[in-house]
Amino acid sequence: MSERQRLELQLSLECDGWPEEATLETLATRVLETAAVHLARETEQPFADDPVEISLVFTDDDAIRAINAEWRQQDKPTNVLSFPAYPIAPGDEPGPMLGDIILALETLQREALDLGKPFEDHLIHLLVHGFLHLFGYDHMTDAEAEVMEGLEIRILAELGLDDPYGDHSQNDN
């Protein structure tokens, strides 16, 4: 396995207020490649030899609320939604298209402010969180949450960030 996984990111900025596309692409590439390498190393998660595509959508609360209502029957905005392109379980090799990660600007801004952390740090956390969902990780049960949050904490530490679950958990997807 190479030190850097081969990820192809497709970015879509659907509203104003996000950092510039080039800034988001640089940040997301660094974060998701670190997460992919960490996941492969720690869990022996196989990774395809060919590039894996991930779609990143940077949108607003109104758009994510509509998506959340349609796909999860929850008529409210949320911070991040992930949609795997194909069913995948932890430990499965990903296909050529991993899936979509959709993030909501206003919710991320509100949560970062409420948590007293920089917006970029919160965005990094939710990119990692959404990425793990694409690999089949979830937090519907305590056991699943323990595994997923443990991975998040270790990946974020590798990125130089503190444990986001030290006092609270804000993810509801």
Key terms for this structure?
Collagenase (Catalytic Domain); 173 residues; 4-stranded mixed β-sheet; globular; alpha/beta
Task: Explain what this protein looks like in three dimensions.
Keywords: Cytoplasm, Endonuclease, Hydrolase, Metal-binding, Nuclease, Ribosome biogenesis, rRNA processing, Zinc. Its EC number is 3.1.-.-. Single strand-specific metallo-endoribonuclease involved in late-stage 70S ribosome quality control and in maturation of the 3' terminus of the 16S rRNA. It comes from Rhizobium alvei. It is built from five helices and four strands. By secondary structure, the chain is α/β, with parallel strands linked by helices. The protein has a single domain (7-158), classed as Collagenase (Catalytic Domain) (3-Layer(aba) Sandwich). Strand 1, helix 1 (21-43) and strand 2 form a beta-alpha-beta unit. The longest helix has 23 residues, at 21-43. It starts with 6 loop residues before the first strand and ends in a 15-residue tail after the last helix.
